[in-house]
Amino acid sequence: MSTARTQLPEGRYGRSSDARADHKLKIAGAVLGTLLLLLVGYFAYHYVGQNKISGEVITFEPHKSSVSVHLEVRKDAGASGYCTVRSQAADGSEVGRADFRFDGSATRIDKVVTLRTTAPGTTAELLGCHAD
């Protein structure tokens, strides 16, 4: 008579014999995921939290060779910087772009600026504001 085998073949059923390697991979994945979240948080803070000047276009009025743009700029009291405005023609081509400086101790500035264009502009778009 032969004896029946009571153990299962190794590696065929259940967990792998290399459970320590799986545990190390989970730890490495958690560490890398945490580092990625910290990196995204760092860049978000510096992009949003450190921006000392911001603005928006309130209204604009196109003319034959220029566009009058009413800008509202908000900034820190001692900050200085510039805002970039552009205008496009009806076909979408850019016909004007300029930087406008904002200095002084005021924290809110309403100003109408004139953007000269090479052709009649149909839009006025604020591309962004940057602190010095």
Short description:
Helix content is 23%, strand content 40%.
Largest sheet: 3 strands, antiparallel
Shape: elongated
- The end-to-end span amounts to 92 Å
Q: What's the mean pLDDT score?
A: 85
SSE class? alpha+beta
What is the string of helix and strand elements?
Answer: HEEEEEE
Question: How many individual helices?
Answer: 1
Radius of gyration: 30 Å
Strand order, largest beta sheet: 1-2-5
Poorly predicted spans: none
Helix content: 10-25%
The number of E-state strands comes to 6
Question: How much of the polypeptide forms β-strand, as a percent range?
Answer: 35-45%
What do you see in this structure?
This protein has 132 residues and is an alpha+beta fold. 23% of the residues lie in helices and 40% in strands. The strands form 2 sheets. Strands 1-2-5 form a 3-stranded antiparallel β-sheet, with no helix packed on it. A 3-stranded antiparallel β-sheet has the order 4-3-6, with no helix packed on it. The longest helix is centred in the first third of the chain and has 31 residues, at 19-49. The radius of gyration is 30 Å and the shape is elongated.
